[in-house]
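To: structure desk
From: M.T.
Subject: fold request, one chain
Message: Could you run this one when you get a chance? Sequence is below, nothing fancy, just the single chain.
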Amino acid sequence: MTEAREQAQRREQWHTTDERIAQLEGQVDALVQAVHALIDGLEPEPVVHTEEDDRAARGARLARELLLTKGL
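Reply: Done. Structure tokens follow.
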């Protein structure tokens, strides 16, 4: 294999790796947002008195929507 061809393959591999890393970072961000939504739904809030089941359900729905929008 020629030197130029090897360099081109390395550049292509790095490009692919960079794309995969960017995709994984986006997925991790979506998971973090979903976990925060679940935590907010399950965490008691002393100022606002709502049913815990409603808060948990709302948090779960939001987490699901966040994951779906990111294709997870």
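Reply (cont.): The longest helix spans residues 3-42. Let me know if you need anything else for the meeting.
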